[in-house]
Amino acid sequence: MKFKLNVVKYRWLWMILSACLLLPGIIAMIYSTITYPTHTPLKVGIDFTGGTISQFAIPEKVSVTDKNQLTILRSGLEKANIENPYVQILGASSNDESMETIISIRTKFIDKNSDDLNKIKGVIQTSFPEAQLVSVSSVGPTLGTELLKNSMIAVTLAFLGIIAYLTIRFRFDYALAAFLGLLHDTLFVLGVFSILGLVFNVQVDGLFITAILTVIGFSINDTIVTFDRIRENIRYYSKKMSFSEIVDASVNQTIARSINTSTTTGLTLLALYVFGGVTTKDFVLAMLLGVIIGTYSSIFFCSMLLDWWNNRKKVSATVGA
Amino acid sequence: MKNKVIMFWVIVFLAIISLVTIIRKPPTLGLDLMGGSRLTLEAQTTETLAKITPEVMGRLKFAIENRINKIGVAETMVQQSGEKRLIVEIPNVSDLTEAKKFIGDTAELEFKKEAGVDKDGNMKWESTGLTGKDVEKAMLSTSSSGEWVVDLKFRDAGVKKFAQLTTDLVGQQLAIYFGGELQSAPVIRQPILNGNAQISGGESSGGFEHSEAQRMVDLLNAGALPVPAEIVEENIVGPTLGADSLEKSKFAGMLGIGFVMIFMILYYRVPGIIADIALLLYSLMLFAIFVSVPVTLTLAGIAGFILSVGMAVDANILIFERTKEELRAGRNLYTAINSGFDRAFTSIFDSNMTTIITCIILYCLGTSIVKGFALTLAIGVSVSMFSAITITKNFMHLVFGTGELKYPQMFGLKKEEINTAYTATETKREKARFGILE
Known about the structure:
The complex is a heterodimer. By secondary structure, chain A is an alpha+beta fold. In chain A, 65% of the residues lie in helices and 9% in strands. Chain A has helices at residues 11-35, 46-49, 67-79, 116-127, 141-169, 172-200, 206-237, 243-275, 281-312, and strands at 51-58, 86-91, 101-107, 132-139. By secondary structure, chain B is an alpha+beta fold. Chain B contains 11 helices and 11 strands. In chain B, helix 1 runs antiparallel to helix 10 (368-400), helix 3 (54-71) runs antiparallel to helix 4 and helix 7 (239-292) crosses helix 10 (368-400). Chain B is rod-shaped, with a radius of gyration of 34 Å.
């Protein structure tokens, strides 16, 4: 092979790189947990806290960062007795001329007897007479907490299910290394979104949990392919090569596939991110980040861990033979 | 070779069936794509009913269904979720202000009798045990003075109760409460024995509006809710936003798949073309399954589908990488293709199994959006095992046959690369399939 990657030899380099990738996110999550009123590591949306988001489409083009317009709308809403309104301007980039821009208003939960929705509409129509309500999504406060709890259970169960499957199909140490890889990838994506929450006020919703679970699935895919190769090579070469050499060889044999798969999946996701609807943008971004970090971790992080673990057990040469 | 030809025609046959299915039946679109509303109602316990039993939920569901049907929109759906929640889906309606009040209203009709006067001089009322449940039928009608009124006809038990009440309370007022509000309190002039009564809007408020009286009639006929139901979640997507999302997802999806197909041809050449054909067949079959199950397509579902395309291609990438390795190791074409498939199989199987495990967990625990995603992804992954392995393998053998590889460029390999890589010992196919390699 012309090109050879030395995963095992530069173990410390990958550890430091992983630490650099994860640390800012972890710090952001700790900071967020302390400072947010919800005490969550990420900025959570109405799906988890309860509240109402109403979206209005307007035919005018308004810049997403138009501070002036944001202030006018916010103070208008406050005057109309809407508590703590959060106003966001979204570029719709639609073919439909009546939907050049979308104005999204988040408020506390509006129940069926309240007239708040009409008040909000009134305020927006004073600035944009042609504004029309295009979507409302409302989550009651009790339901929100329940969803958060269920999501945590889902993620934990997914982790356990994968570890169990890998322990059966491979061995526990492979499962453990793969699990740490999952944790690595999940933490990275959560961290990035925690930072995005602090800097750009990005909030995570129910779909985000789906994205995280997909990231888990994808990251494990990559790791399995690499580990499967290690398992296979051990059967051929365990007498001729050390475990570390086998790991290195396996990574090099699978790297083309790992990169190609990430490229193809990344391309589809990129197309969705750039041309897909506004509503799924963050969802796709989370998956895109997951695909990239999943590829990195399966090539460098997980294989390195597996090797490290085996060397510590000092049975490197005879494993699996 | 004969088997392969038969398999080829089976694939062609499946493709034709899929195509016909897709043409004949339009896909079921989710509310986020075609516009509509989804409400989650939660049954509330009351003083008299401290626990929500399945029986109560059954009655609540029936009553809500009745009311939804009164709105007059096709393809509405009421579904129980969990122990005390109902999910109501109403397509194509984006202004639900009226409908929402209508759905959640307990519509409890109660007749109350006088119970003295409180210290401010207001009349107090107490329950008589006669309620809307005793009502057989309500009708819209006009009174002699031309006002809108609601005519009530009681059921057997109700007729007796009403007769008894009106006999006992002649000369007193009988209050009619609807949804907890006093509607009118007529004086009973004589016993009513035939079970026909009338609700009027009361003189002071100027009688009922037509719509008011009509709504009361509808609610009474639809039946009272056994327990109050609160709207705890609500999702309304306007038809324009829905159409826009659908348009964008379609475009993005096609573009994404287009990129993938070009990449496969550039990198893997002839096998790439075969993988692309398999990918097209995959999309065709998957869509046919979606419309015939039917799986409701939502935005998240489309994302799941596009992701499954990525995974279907992944299987082919794995196989082709292995085949190329085998070719580099100097194996003949037929064996190289076969062992490429066999050796990649464990990786593909294990990685797809973990994806399916995650999907099952998501499907069991997730909300309806998440469920849609998990279902499309799981079906996609399962179908991809067929398309990426069986279809591609069949086409590879049909295209390349059993001869020598004369043009390594067909695989994106250089001539001098052949026979230079490491050598691996031969493994029996049956064993390779289960990850046992000699």
